[in-house]
Structure formats: structure tokens, C-alpha cells
Amino acid sequence: MRILAVSDAEESLLGAQLANGSIGPFGAVISCGDLRPGYLDYVSTMANAPLLYVRGNHDTDEAGYADMGGIPLNCRIEEVGGLRIAGLDGSLLYRDGIVGYTEREMLLHAALLAMTAKLTGGVDVLVTHAPPRGYGDMDDIPHRGFECFNWLLTVLRPRLMLCGHVHLNYGRLDREHAHPTGTRIVNAFGHWEGEL
């Protein structure tokens, strides 16, 4: 299945590329967070594909996401096109008023997701907003990844992890990383296209 992943930055040309067929077709649009519900609705409509999403640290408009449609992935596993896709919202908690979790809180979410996945057939794609610690994150607390995501990748061994949060224009950052488990980690900043 071909996937269009989006995160953190709205791209005005993306709709035109979808409309003229220069990219696609896609079996799913996956958002890694920090994008307006209206933009996500537009992209999934232009792609003519189901939308699955996690919320980023700035995605506090819960009503807007509920009204948009799409499939929320937080602490859930959904099957689309034969792929089992799981997700976790938010970033490391660095101040009040964001979608954020302490490392301990996220570990509890990750453990519940891992247990569900193990009992129901595993996961092909893990979708998060923040990256795993040490794989495309930064040293400052707002952009630090979760250590427990490394544990989760070791337990679940998904083929692909999609994340965002750390903007690629922050500096010399790589879009892709290889995790020791064999999982391909992709930062979907802007947009990314891939096949699974």
C-alpha cells in the first residue's frame, strides 16, 4: 500500500500535486500531528484516501479533530489496506497547555499499546508525533524524543515508524533513521510518500 504521511507544516503545493496526479494514488493519508483539521480534511479529500492521525503537542482543538472525521490512532490499532497501524499522541511534556506526557505517562500508554498489539496480531506501522530518543530528536526538552519508544520498537518491531515534531528546517537533520530493531524511522515533516 502506498502511504502519504504529513506532519507539522502545511504545504500549499501538495493539493495541486494530488489534483494533477503527479503524486499518488495513496491507500491512506497518515498525519503525525501539528496540522489543522481543515488542512488534513483537504489533503485526505484530494488524495481520496482514508485519514488516520495522531495529535501533536499543539493539537489542543479536540472538537475540531472530532468534527473532521478521520480515524484517531492514539493508543489504538487500525487495519487499513491489510496494514495494522498504531499510534500515540503528543510530545514530551515541557509546559502546561500542550498535548504532552511525562516519560512515565508515555511508557504506560506504550505498554498498553504493546499488550494489545501482541494479543491481536502485531503492528506494521507505528505513528507518533515525537520521535524515539536518539533517532532524529534534539537535546532540548521540547524536542527530545521518548526513550520508551525505543522499548516499544524492540517489543513490536514494526516495519515503519512515522513521526514528526522535530522540523527538518531546524538544522542538519536526517529525514530517515534505521533503528537496531530493523524499523525504518521516517520524519514526515511537510510530507513523505512511501510504499509498504
Salient structural properties:
28% helix, 196 residues, five-stranded mixed beta sheet, alpha/beta, globular
Could you explain the architecture of this structure?
The structure is a single chain. This protein has 196 residues and is of the alpha/beta class. It has a single domain (2-195), classed as Metallo-dependent phosphatases (Purple Acid Phosphatase, chain A, domain 2, 4-Layer Sandwich). 28% of the residues lie in helices and 26% in strands. It has five helices and 13 strands. It has helices at residues 12-20, 37-47, 62-68, 103-120, 148-156, and strands at residues 2-7, 28-31, 51-53, 71-72, 76-80, 83-88, 91-92, 100-101, 125-128, 160-163, 176-178, 184-187, 190-195. A six-stranded mixed sheet has the order 5-6-9-10-12-11. It has a five-stranded mixed sheet with strand order 4-3-2-1-13, covered by helices on one side. Strands 7-8 form a two-stranded parallel sheet. Helix 1 (12-20) packs parallel to helix 2, helix 2 runs parallel beside helix 3 (62-68) and helix 4 runs parallel beside helix 5. It is globular.
Topology at a glance:
Blueprint: E1 2-7, H1 12-20, E2 28-31, H2 37-47, E3 51-53, H3 62-68, E4 71-72, E5 76-80, E6 83-88, E7 91-92, E8 100-101, H4 103-120, E9 125-128, H5 148-156, E10 160-163, E11 176-178, E12 184-187, E13 190-195
Parallel strand pairs: 1-2, 2-3, 3-4, 6-9, 7-8, 9-10, 10-12
Antiparallel strand pairs: 1-13, 5-6, 11-12
Helix pairs in contact: 1-2, 2-3, 4-5
